[in-house]
Design a protein that fits this description.
single chain, alpha/beta, Adenylosuccinate Synthetase, Chain A, domain 3, 12 helices, 33% helix, 21% strand, globular, binds inosinic acid
């Protein structure tokens, strides 16, 4: 069983890697997060940005599961499935766990309210209701997907939850929501989803019993992990591979392969410390070159040089069996490429990830690696990469501590070197 997880701030290219590996998978499972995800996939069917549906959907033979660890906005899921079908991608194999939690319109409203009230301390969330939905789950106020099956009870639950949610919304000057309208919208979407809403545990159990090839698709990266990321600038779930056991419903010892996806440089959307961040025209240049705009919000991503401390932190938590390095082709034009190997904090050098407010004041220590000064996007064999590009990959291996197994040199599925 293979897990594909992000080793930086998210947006590492997990969608592309999952799509590539899913061609050989029987089951693909998303285990956390919700529509805050924006997994970009470019293949023979076109260019897609997936938010809820696993990136395995392009393999019609793979069962695609939205796992119980996810938070799901059902109307949004229906829209996403409709759009895929319209683009000629069959979605009959998509299933939603009946234990996943619902993202309801009041979670979206509360996400916006919370960000607004934090003011200058805002987190920069995607506004997809993720945090409030997980807060309700942990606070034992969440509504699980299976609850839509009993309409009368579901309507009562929504009305009851809205009493407190509306009080909060109104207290801060926002419009209250109408319980009937909220329930109507969700029930209509649930009716469209019909038999896709299932207990996914028997499916996963069967997959394990028959030695099916299972792929676990993480959302976001270690730096945004609720427990190990840069709290509070994190998401409300655990993108680490450990999160997959709970979030997909699989025993821990069956994960044998953990692929850490790293971009050849660093990017982040949202707030919080980002030591190697670039500013001004250098940032604009890399952003344009890499088309670094959020797949969910369209926000320009913050960009910076490769920071080995972050994926090293991720490796300590995930024990990557290999790394997948994406977007190496974007660095083609640089003569020298700054590469951060460690941080200096108050005169001490470290490769350990400090807590958030210490990270805020670290000084990144750079090596200057030679660039290769050529376009490598057409290369189809890893052995043919320029020597300097191979050297760059080697330095990633040495500083992170895991071997590079996959290299991406372009957005398409075919631009993937093993
Ligand atoms: P939330 O997950 O929407 O609550 O946002 C929490 C943090 O995670 C913010 O910094 C977001 O920008 C970031 N984030 C959430 N989803 C993604 C994603 O798919 N890619 C990159 N960053 C994300």
């Amino acid at each position: 069983m293979t897990a594909v997880v992000g080793a930086q701030w998210g947006d590492e290219g997990k969608g592309k890697i999952t799509d590539y590996l899913a061609q050989q998978a029987d089951v693909v499972i998303r285990y956390q997060g919700g529509s805050n995800a924006g997994h970009t996939v470019v293949n023979d069917k076109g260019a897609f940005k997936l938010h809820l549906v696993p990136s395995g959907v392009f393999n019609p033979d793979a069962l695609c599961i939205l796992g119980p660890g996810m938070v799901v906005e059902l109307p949004f899921l229906v829209e996403e499935l409709d759009a895929l079908e319209k683009a000629g991608v069959p979605t009959a194999n998509v299933r939603v766990s009946d234990r996943a939690h619902l993202v309801l319109p009041y979670h979206l409203a509360l996400d916006r309210l919370d960000e607004r009230e934090r003011g200058r301390q805002k987190l920069g969330t995607t506004g997809r209701g993720n945090g409030p939905a997980y807060s309700d789950k942990v606070g034992r106020h969440g509504i699980q997907v299976y609850e839509v099956r009993d309409e009368k009870r579901f309507r009562e639950r929504v009305a009851h939850e809205l009493e407190t949610k509306n009080a909060i919304l109104e207290r801060f000057g926002d419009e209250p929501l109408d319980a009937r309208a909220v329930a109507d919208e969700v029930l209509a979407a649930a009716a469209r989803l019909g038999g896709r809403i299932v207990d996914t545990l028997p499916l996963v159990e069967h997959a394990l019993a028959t030695d099916a090839r299972v792929l676990l698709e993480g959302q976001l990266g270690a730096m945004r992990d609720l427990d190990w990321g840069i709290y509070p600038y994190v998401t409300s779930s655990n993108p680490l591979a450990g999160g997959a056991t709970i979030g997909a419903g699989i025993p821990p010892r069956v994960i044998t392969r953990v692929i850490g996806v790293v971009k050849a440089y660093s990017t982040a959307v949202g707030e919080g410390p980002f030591p190697t961040e670039l500013h001004g025209s250098d940032a604009d240049d890399l952003r344009e070159r890499g088309q670094e705009y959020g797949a969910t919000t369209g926000r320009p991503r913050r960009v910076g040089w490769f920071d080995a401390v972050a994926p090293r932190h991720a490796h300590r938590l995930n024990a990557f069996t290999e790394l997948a390095v994406t977007k190496l082709d974007m660095l083609g034009r640089y003569e020298r490429i700054p590469f951060c190997t460690s941080y200096e904090i108050d005169g001490t050098t470290t490769t350990d990830m400090p807590p958030t407010h210490v990270l805020d004041r670290v000084v990144p220590r750079y090596e200057q690696l030679p660039g290769w000064g050529s376009d490598i996007s057409g290369i189809t064999d890893r052995a043919l990469l320029p020597t300097a590009a191979k050297g760059y990959l080697r330095r990633i291996e040495e500083t992170v501590g895991a071997p590079v197994g996959i290299v991406g040199v372009g957005p398409e599925r075919t631009a993937t070197l093993l």
